[in-house]
């Protein structure tokens, strides 16, 4: 059995699956249930400053998109940080941590961008015995209008400043949670690092409108006929989150900075992908909100079985393993030549590959051969783009096959070169020509 | 089709026809089909399907594990509750169990294909011979399990996991009980029953002694003298008699014997069957006998049942299967007399029946069906000697909710007990739960006695 024990910036948990700061971690009742179900840790629902708590809307907070069979693919919310009293939260956190000493309990915090506000709340949180804090610089709605959340997360200088205060006023590890609502996620990550953060976590939710009611012309979710943009999460955001995690993992300036990966994690496989792309652990919200806490059992057994099958013993054996393989486009090997191949026994003759290639790509798949309906790749036209593979409804029916060096590429009439060559040295690249001249 | 000669003959079909007729009823799902099927599961909370499963397999979890490409973890989830999950996936009448309860059955009359998904996962794990359990520290206790059917095997496996040593005694040549001798051929092809016995025994600590019959070779008190506890999973060794004239004519056969012979035959071409077969009964055995008689090349097969369709123990699905294979099912007919010619069956005379004041009566009208082969599937009975003073009721062993019989240190489960459901999966559940009870009792007994001051 693989060893799933996780040590993230000194915070230990029996497995790398934490619940992200959100409704599943809003109070002791939920968190106790989560720990019973097997979650390794939780980031408590974001705390605000002392005083009357924020209020949420009293109508729908969620919008969603679904597959045709009602599988939830993306969720959007307009919820704010906790709407419960600070001291109630702190009291419950302390009790839960006492009941579950082996699980990670992190306090998520969002207070105004003023030194005193942070200085005031940190000792209170520390007193609960929490294992660390997460700075919520991500919330894209409601809080940002008040100069918090994403409003801070979008200004690297503010991030650096707040992280610095936190490192100054607490001994707890600091995790900085980043917003994806920014052009280059490396900038806030670098700022957090300069401020002295122990880790970053990402992504928070993405600005979105999931749908519009075409009878009332109100965006969904509709509150008394009006809607507001919300934060998007769930399976649909995973590719965006993966890229942002990878960008930080391979950025020379933040290289080695621990990352807690978040965004659309629904299965063990999603989690494994985040881990190999450089995350030290993962956080989950929408999957738990869709299926309940028991979902973690699938994640734990799935990750463990995959590791066993591949001979990986600990999380250290897998974390970051894919990072060296994330490259800039300009360094990809232009001498690698692949062609689509159709397995005629598997092909059900739907014609989708043909029309995709014919109408929108490179006219490289036949429709008729000798007067019969027959779909076959013409190697002298195929550029190896992979579109047909992605539109074919039959699994493994079309595969991309790399040509062996020394064989002829019928499209270009050139022999496949075994040597690696990329765009930086390609004769068509004006920069390369300049460098050569 | 081959020969349609009258009489009970073997070799009615060509080898190719035999092979085709007795191949897998539901071919296994391939990976893509399994992913599509598993994607339909809603991962229900407190799932109704799970409640409907007599062994309470965590169905939403195992299906989700299939959908995430983790069939090995899925098999682990299944075997945790039901070590014979492979056979159950093939033989459970899912249409009256888990799949009936599935919320998608409620919603759109098309349940998640739980049985076939269960087979998908367990097949993969068994093919790779992935064993999920290790034996606990040896306890030094020894338990006798009498009967190597589903109840006995499930009990033995759970006991072995707990670190006990188990000896299984079974009267027959091979282990497996009705998995080996009763289940319809097309439900468990490729000698699956024996492969499963091997898989279960691989845990170690279980010895099987075949051809050892309780009441003939040993008694219950012999077992109690030799072992710390005894589990009885004896099944139903007897069959009901027809009590009709002509029952001894050549060509009148017990359906269970007919099926057992069929199951033991390699090619099926050596199993004789009549040209016109009448099967008496209305349960799963009747349907299995009728369908297999048809598949062996009988020209006409008729099931005669003495009550209405709604009273039949065979499920709707089984009845449809029989109909699809060309079996005629007739209701409200009760055997009156086997018509014999030269000592051989020539037909059967039946009384028409009806219900009057809640009682089944004959109407006085009779009919005759021409037949050269009559298969009796009118119920099995519990039969065993050497049990001593154990309490029986309605001819079955009485147990409490943990599987304990009236005798100290003796547990029982499966078809032989009162309240048994005559299903493989129920036998597994009872065997497993009895093992837990035995383990609790033995563990409590081996606690050092607390000194009383
Ligand atoms: C024809 C037929 C078809 C069936 N089809 C299905 C189906 O499709 N699905 C389903 O769920 N259920 C089916 N059943 C029912 C199912 O097979 C039984 O419920 C199940 O096998 C019961 O398990 P068991 O362990 O209690 O008994 P058995 O399987 O009967 O096993 C009992 C074992 O005890 C041994 N034994 C008996 N007496 C003695 C003795 N005196 N000494 C030593 N050993 C002894 C026997 O040799 C046998 O190995 C079918 C039954 C029959 C008869
Ligand atoms: C209803 C809801 C409320 C959330 N509230 C918070 C919050 O208070 N603090 C925070 O840092 N993130 C919050 N999030 C963002 C999640 O923690 C998480 O970053 C995001 O949902 C992406 O993960 P997922 O795809 O697994 O849901 C919230 C998300 C949802 C759906
Ligand atoms: S999920 Fe619960 S709280 Fe929310 S709208 Fe439905 S019933 Fe009300
Ligand atoms: S898309 Fe796939 S199945 Fe359809 S014609 Fe092309 S190769 Fe065949
Ligand atoms: S009831 Fe049906 S949909 Fe629900 S968990 Fe069971 S199999 Fe899945």
UniProtKB/TrEMBL annotation, chain A:
Domain of life: Bacteria
Residue ranges annotated for the 4Fe-4S ferredoxin-type domain, each copy included: 338-367, 373-403
Pfam name, any one: Fer4_21
EC numbers: 1.3.1.1
The keyword NADP appears for this protein: no
Keywords: Iron, Iron-sulfur, Metal-binding, Oxidoreductase
Keyword Oxidoreductase set for record: yes
GO molecular function: dihydropyrimidine dehydrogenase (NAD+) activity
Function text: Involved in pyrimidine base degradation. Catalyzes physiologically the reduction of uracil to 5,6-dihydrouracil (DHU) by using NADH as a specific cosubstrate. It also catalyzes the reverse reaction and the reduction of thymine to 5,6-dihydrothymine (DHT).
PANTHER family: DIHYDROPYRIMIDINE DEHYDROGENASE [NADP(+)]
Complexes and interactors: Heterotetramer of 2 PreA and 2 PreT subunits.
Family: Belongs to the dihydropyrimidine dehydrogenase family.
Protein name: dihydrouracil dehydrogenase (NAD(+))
Organism, scientific name: Rhizobium herbae
From TrEMBL, chain B:
EC number(s) per entry: 1.3.1.1
Keywords of the record: Oxidoreductase
Oxidoreductase recorded as keyword: yes
GO molecular function: glutamate synthase (NADH) activity; glutamate synthase (NADPH) activity
Domain FAD/NAD(P)-binding: 142-431
A Pfam family of this chain: Fer4_20
Catalytic activities: 5,6-dihydrouracil + NAD(+) = uracil + NADH + H(+); 5,6-dihydrothymine + NAD(+) = thymine + NADH + H(+)
Record InterPro entries: DPD_II, FAD/NAD-bd_sf, FAD/NAD-binding_dom, Helical_ferredxn
Residue ranges constituting the Dihydroprymidine dehydrogenase domain according to the UniProt record: 20-128
Assembly: Heterotetramer of 2 PreA and 2 PreT subunits.
PANTHER family in the cross-refs: DIHYDROPYRIMIDINE DEHYDROGENASE [NADP(+)]
Protein purpose: Involved in pyrimidine base degradation. Catalyzes physiologically the reduction of uracil to 5,6-dihydrouracil (DHU) by using NADH as a specific cosubstrate. It also catalyzes the reverse reaction and the reduction of thymine to 5,6-dihydrothymine (DHT).
Name of the protein described by the UniProt record: dihydrouracil dehydrogenase (NAD(+))
Organism: Rhizobium herbae
């Amino acid at each position: 059995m693989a060893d799933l024990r996780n040590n993230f910036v000194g915070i230990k948990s029996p497995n790398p699956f934490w619940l992200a700061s959100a409704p599943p971690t809003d109070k002791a009742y939920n968190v106790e249930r989560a720990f019973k179900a097997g979650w390794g840790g939780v980031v408590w629902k974001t705390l605000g400053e002392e005083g009357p708590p924020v209020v949420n809307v009293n109508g729908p907070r969620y919008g969603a998109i679904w597959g045709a069979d009602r599988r939830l693919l993306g969720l959007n919310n307009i919820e704010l940080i906790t709407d419960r009293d600070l001291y109630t939260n702190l009291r419950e956190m302390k009790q839960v941590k006492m009941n579950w000493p082996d699980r990670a309990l992190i306090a998520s915090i969002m207070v105004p961008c003023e030194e005193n506000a942070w200085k005031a709340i940190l000792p209170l949180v520390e007193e609960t015995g929490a294992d660390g804090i997460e700075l919520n610089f991500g919330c894209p709605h409601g809080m940002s209008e008040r100069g918090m959340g994403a409003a801070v997360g979008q200004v690297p200088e503010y991030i650096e400043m707040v992280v610095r205060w936190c490192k100054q006023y607490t001994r707890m590890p600091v995790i900085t949670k980043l917003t994806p609502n920014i052009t280059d996620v490396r900038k806030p990550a670098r700022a957090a690092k300069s401020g002295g953060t122990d880790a970053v976590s990402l992504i928070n939710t993405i600005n979105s409108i999931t749908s519009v009611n075409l009878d009332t012309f109100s965006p969904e979710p509709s509150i008394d006929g009006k809607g507001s943009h919300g934060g998007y999460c769930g399976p649909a955001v995973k590719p965006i989150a993966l890229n942002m995690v990878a960008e930080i993992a391979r950025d020379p300036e933040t290289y080695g900075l621990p990352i807690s990966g978040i965004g659309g994690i629904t299965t063990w496989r999603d989690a494994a992908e985040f881990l190999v792309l450089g995350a030290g652990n993962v956080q989950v919200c929408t999957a738990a909100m869709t299926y309940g806490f028991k979902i973690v059992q699938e994640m734990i057994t799935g990750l463990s079985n995959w590791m066993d099958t591949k001979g990986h013993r600990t999380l250290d054996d897998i974390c970051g393993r894919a990072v060296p393989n994330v490259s800039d486009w300009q360094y990809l090997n232009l001498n690698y030549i692949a062609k689509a191949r159709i397995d005629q026994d598997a092909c059900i003759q739907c014609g989708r590959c043909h029309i995709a290639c014919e109408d929108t790509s490179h006219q490289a798949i036949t429709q008729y051969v000798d007067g019969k309906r027959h779909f076959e790749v013409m190697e002298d036209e195929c550029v190896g783009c992979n579109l047909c593979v992605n539109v074919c409804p039959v699994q493994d029916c079309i595969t991309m096959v790399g040509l062996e060096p020394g064989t002829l590429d019928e499209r270009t009439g050139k022999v496949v070169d075994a040597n690696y060559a990329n765009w930086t040295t390609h004769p068509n690249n004006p920069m390369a020509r300049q460098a050569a001249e | 089709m081959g020969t349609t000669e009258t009489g009970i003959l073997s070799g009615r079909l060509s080898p190719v026809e035999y092979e085709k007729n007795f191949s897998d009823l539901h071919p296994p799902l391939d990976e893509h089909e399994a992913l599509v099927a598993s994607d339909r599961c809603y991962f229900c909370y407190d799932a109704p399907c799970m409640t409907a499963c007599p062994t309470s397999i965590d169905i939403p979890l195992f299906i989700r594990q299939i959908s995430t490409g983790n069939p090995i973890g899925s098999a682990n989830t299944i075997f945790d509750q039901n070590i014979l999950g492979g056979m159950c996936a093939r033989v459970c009448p899912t249409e009256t169990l888990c799949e009936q309860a599935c919320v998608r059955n409620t919603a759109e009359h098309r349940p998640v294909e739980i049985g076939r998904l269960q087979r998908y996962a367990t097949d993969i794990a068994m093919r790779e011979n992935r064993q999920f359990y290790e034996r606990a520290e040896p306890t030094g206790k020894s338990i006798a399990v009498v009967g190597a059917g589903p109840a006995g095997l499930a009990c033995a496996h759970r006991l072995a996991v707990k670190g006990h040593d188990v000896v299984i005694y079974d009267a027959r040549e091979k282990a497996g009980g009705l998995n080996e001798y009763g289940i319809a051929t097309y439900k468990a092809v490729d000698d699956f029953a024996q492969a499963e016995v091997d898989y279960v025994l691989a845990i170690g600590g279980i010895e099987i002694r075949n051809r050892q019959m309780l009441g003939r070779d040993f008694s219950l008190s012999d077992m109690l003298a030799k072992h710390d506890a005894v589990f009885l999973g004896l099944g139903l060794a007897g069959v009901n008699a027809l009590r009709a004239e002509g029952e001894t004519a050549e060509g009148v056969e017990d359906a269970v014997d007919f099926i057992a012979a069929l199951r033991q035959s390699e090619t099926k071409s050596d199993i004789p069957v009549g040209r016109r077969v009448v099967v008496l009964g209305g349960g799963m055995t009747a349907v299995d006998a009728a369908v297999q008689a048809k598949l062996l090349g009988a020209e006409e097969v008729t099931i005669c049942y003495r009550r209405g369709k709604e009273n039949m123990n065979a499920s709707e699905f089984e009845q449809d299967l029989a109909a699809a294979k060309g079996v005629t099912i007739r209701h409200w007919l009760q055997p009156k007399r086997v018509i014999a010619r030269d000592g051989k069956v020539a037909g059967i005379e039946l009384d028409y029946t009806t219900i009057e004041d809640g009682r089944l009566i004959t109407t006085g009208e009779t009919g005759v069906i021409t037949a050269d082969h009559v298969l009796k599937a009118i119920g099995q009975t519990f039969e065993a000697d050497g049990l001593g003073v154990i309490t029986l009721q309605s001819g079955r062993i009485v147990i409490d909710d943990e599987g304990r019989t009236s005798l100290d240190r003796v547990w029982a489960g499966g078809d032989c007990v009162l309240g048994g459901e005559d299903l493989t999966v129920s036998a597994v559940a009872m065997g497993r739960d009895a093992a837990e009870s035995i383990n609790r009792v033995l563990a409590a007994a081996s606690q050092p006695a607390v000194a009383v001051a």
